[in-house]
Amino acid sequence: MRDDLFDLVQLAQKGDHKALEAIIQSFFPAIRSQRMNVAADRQDDLEQVIVETMIKKILSYDLTNSPDFTSFLSRYCCKQGLA
């Protein structure tokens, strides 16, 4: 998964929308599980915020310094209280 994810991030940063969607889909089980941590009327909002944040981070991630995006995203989510 690590190499696949690296390749997908690289493609997404070059404008490949299918690669971006594949990344988000691979994390969707974790995103969905976070919905249960908020009130029912806020679950869709939380999911949207997480996906929007992921997109921004995917597109701005510096692949030259650290190719382990999964660890980066996990650390980011923990800092934000999302994991």
Please give a structural write-up:
This is Helix-turn-helix conjugative transposon-like domain-containing protein. Residues 6-62 form the Helix-turn-helix conjugative transposon-like domain. Pfam families: HTH_16. It comes from Paenibacillus borealis. The structure is a single chain. The protein has helices spanning 2-13, 17-35, 43-60, 69-79. Helix content is 72%, strand content 0%. It has a single domain, classed as Rna Polymerase Sigma Factor, Chain: A (Orthogonal Bundle), CATH 1.10.1740. With 83 residues, it is an all-alpha fold. The two termini are 19 Å apart.
How would you sum up this structure in a few lines?
The chain is an all-alpha fold. The protein has helices at residues 2-13, 17-35, 43-60, 69-79.
Rg for CA atoms: 13 Å
What is the CATH level 1 assignment? Answer: Mainly Alpha
Helix content class: over 70%
Helical stretch count?
A: 4
Low-confidence stretches: none
Domain tally:
1
- Find the structural class using helix and strand composition: mainly alpha
Structure keywords:
4 helices; HTH_dom_conjug_TS-like; Rna Polymerase Sigma Factor, Chain: A; mainly alpha; single chain; RNA_pol_sigma_r2
